[in-house]
Amino acid sequence: MKQVYIVKLGLIGLTPTALVEKGRTLVEKCTGNTNVTLPTNFLTDLGAACTALEQANIAVRDNGGRADHVTRAARVADVENLIRELAGYVQAQCEGDHEKIASTGFGVRKQPSPVGVLGAPTNVRARRGKLPGEIHVIWDGVYARLLYGLYYTEGDPKDEGSWKLLVQTSKNRYTATGLTSDKVYYFRVQAIGAAGAGEMSDSAFAKAA
Predict the structure, then answer these.
(1) Closest CA to 106 of 93, 120, 116, 119
(2) What is the pTM of this model?
(3) Which residue stretches of 31-189 are H helix?
(4) How far apart are CA 165 and CA 189, in angstroms?
(5) Strands 184-193 and 196-200
(6) Domain assignment of residue 115, yes or no
(7) How many angstroms separate the Cα of 197 from the Cα of each of 57, 92, 119, 126, 194?
(8) Number of structural domains found in the chain
(9) Which residue from 36, 106, 116, 168 puts its CA 20 to 30 A from 82's CA?
(10) CATH of the domain at 159
């Protein structure tokens, strides 16, 4: 049986300075890496967050006031959250392959108790948004998921070929934007775990604002 490896975040015990270095290493390793496809501007955002943290580090070093420490703590959280999100993309797309994960700059650890293919997310709801072209989609969480794949169609939901991937997200909610007002859209969700993509949920629909 093939060993499935899990991304090791490696965030525990990092100083803010070391966190900046880690974030920039991940940006460098993931840029142009064919093993992982990321949302537009994701690596740019991570790089910018690292720069903001670096500037906050300098402010703490030079001034050391309470406000400087508060700001730095917020910038640390920004970088850590983006690294966690990146780890989810890497885990889902590298499918537990040791070499592929390592190519992105992350460490790996063995899965202590393999979790099989995940079940379908339940209780998927879609509701009309407040702004033009918006629909809010929410669903119940799935244990051991790394990411969710949210799919949509503006055609016949029974036609499998009409479904398209809207986004991969670590959260169990998403606001779709840029839709055609007063048009009905259908949505369904798939949980992605260490063993790959799980079962597809039932669909939900709503009319865009």
Answers:
(1) 93
(2) 0.64
(3) 42-62, 66-94, 98-103
(4) 9
(5) antiparallel
(6) no
(7) 40, 8, 9, 22, 8
(8) 2
(9) 116
(10) 2.60.40.10
- Dihedral-angle region of residue 7 (phi above 0 means left; psi in -120 to 50 means alpha; beta otherwise): beta
131 and 183 assigned to the same domain: yes
Q: Which domain holds residue 200?
A: 125-207
What's the token pair of residue 20?
């900046």
Residue whose token pair is 């920039």: 24
Rounded CA separation 138/206 (Å): 12
Considering the domain boundaries, does residue 117 fall inside one? no
